[in-house]
Amino acid sequence: MTQLNRVAEYLKTHGSIDPLTAWNYLGTYRLGARILELRQQGWDIKTERKEVKNQFGEVCYVANYVYHENPFTSL
After folding, report:
1. CA neighbor of 44 nearest in space, from 1, 4, 8
2. What's the CA gap between 58 and 22, in Å, rounded?
């Protein structure tokens, strides 16, 4: 299974994904590149801003990609 397939399946199952989740669970470091590939295939994926805390307890923001299912989209 490719990174693209893993990201697609995760989005179908969970509805959204952020970079840390992609790295920890899917082994995908360049999530933004995989999201771009899915968008180019017609997937409706929106980017939201997600607040997280870093290892020092400081507030940071990361991208959270939210999938809006389109019944005509397939991988």
Report:
1. 8
2. 21
pTM of the model: 0.86
Which alpha helices (H) appear in the chain, and where do they start and end? 3-14, 19-21, 31-40
Query: Tokens in use for 74?
Result: 């397939």
Question: pLDDT for 12-63, tens place per residue?
Answer: 999 999 999 999 999 999 999 999 999 999 999 999 999 999 999 999 999 9
The domain spans of the chain are 3-67
Distance, in Å, from the CA atom of 19 to the CA atom of 63, rounded to the nearest integer, reads 7
